[in-house]
Design goal:
124 residues; 5 helices; 3 helical TM bundles of succinate and fumarate reductases; mainly alpha; elongated; 83% helix
Length: 124
């Protein structure tokens, strides 16, 4: 039987570890075409002025693809940081604080990028 601490860390039930495993793999797979799209977007717009970039990001498909990249990459980053922290940070208190900070950081990055995308794509 798992201890309450093991359950809180996601180690008590087998499906929690499997769920994290699959979520990380799915975001990794989703990131491949999204990052390729990002790279192609950057390469095709090197040297463009702000208005051209803003008009490009204002296209619905482009804005949705960029938003999908932000969300997928943030989720993937949060899972990866949590795994690293669980493996290498000693002490339960430090581990919990580090995981909380990593989670807030991932959320902050996602919110900042989403805000910037919405603001640019809507023309503000």
């Amino acid at each position: 039987m798992a201890t309450p601490l093991a359950k809180a860390r996601g180690l008590g039930a087998a499906h929690r570890g499997t769920e994290t495993f699959w979520r990380q793999r799915m975001t990794a797979i989703a990131n491949v075409p999204l990052v390729i799209f990002l790279i192609l977007s950057i390469v095709t717009h090197i040297g463009a002025d702000y208005q051209t970039i803003r008009a490009y990001l204002a296209q619905t498909v482009v804005a949705i693809a960029m938003l999908a990249l932000v969300i997928s990459a943030s989720i993937h980053m949060r899972i990866g940081l949590k795994e690293i922290i669980e493996d290498y940070v000693q002490g339960e208190g430090a581990k919990v604080v580090a995981i909380l900070l990593a989670t807030f950081f991932a959320i902050g990055v996602a919110l900042a990028c989403t805000f910037a995308l919405v603001k640019i794509s809507l023309g503000s």
